[in-house]
């Protein structure tokens, strides 16, 4: 009878990432209207897992929130947004990025129908209370709905962002 052999952390690391990912090359998670820091650190871990970067507005409490959630022993790919997020989104689109929002709209596509990202893609995330405001919705190329069968209206930013990042990265 052959047993299952667990791989060592070093073996797993070599298989998953033979070389480091390049910041800003492919996927960027952008929780642009954060309210709760606990979710930002968790989302940062998911960004590392799929080779994505995190773009966040510069707020006094955000660095501490990211530090608490980043349980990895190396720096992660975080880029700070200074100024208005609508202007930042305009610059991303102007540079050729696809802008994908995680939001319930009449035009939203289901997560299962979202294709793997083929070009640089910014994943725009609102907050648990009010979602993506109008200034963000106006700039989306596509909105994605995460189907739910439970009684809740939405998932938290970290969970929703992680699901969409994995799908866009082609890892599920």
From TrEMBL:
GO terms for molecular function: RNA binding; RNA methyltransferase activity. One of its GO terms (biological process) is methylation. InterPro entries: Alpha/beta_knot_MTases, rRNA_Methyltransferase, SpoU_MeTrfase, tRNA_m1G_MTases_N. The keyword Cell division does not apply. Keywords: Methyltransferase, Transferase. Pfam families: SpoU_methylase. The keyword Methyltransferase applies. It comes from the Bacteria. Its EC number is 2.1.1.185. Residues 35-166 form the tRNA/rRNA methyltransferase SpoU type domain. It is an enzyme of class 2 (transferase). PANTHER family: RRNA METHYLTRANSFERASE 3 (PTHR43191), RRNA METHYLTRANSFERASE 3, MITOCHONDRIAL (PTHR43191:SF2). This is 23S rRNA (Guanosine-2'-O-)-methyltransferase RlmB. It comes from Nocardia aurantia.
């Amino acid at each position: 009878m052959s047993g299952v052999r667990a791989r060592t952390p070093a073996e797993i690391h070599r298989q998953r990432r033979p070389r480091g990912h390049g910041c800003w090359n492919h996927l960027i998670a952008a929780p642009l209207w954060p309210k709760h820091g606990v979710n930002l650190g968790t989302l940062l871990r998911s960004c590392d897992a799929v080779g994505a970067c995190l773009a966040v507005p510069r707020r006094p409490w955000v660095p501490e929130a990211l530090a608490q959630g980043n349980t990895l022993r190396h720096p992660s790919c975080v880029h700070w947004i200074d100024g208005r997020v609508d202007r930042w989104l305009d610059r991303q689109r102007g540079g050729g990025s696809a802008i994908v929002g995680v939001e319930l709209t009449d035009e939203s596509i289901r997560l299962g129908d979202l294709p793997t990202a083929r070009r640089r893609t910014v994943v725009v995330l609102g907050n648990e209370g009010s979602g993506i405001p109008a200034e963000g919705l106006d700039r989306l190329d596509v909105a994605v709905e995460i189907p739910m069968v439970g009684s809740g209206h939405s998932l938290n930013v970290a969970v929703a962002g992680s699901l969409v990042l994995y799908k866009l990265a082609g890892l599920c």
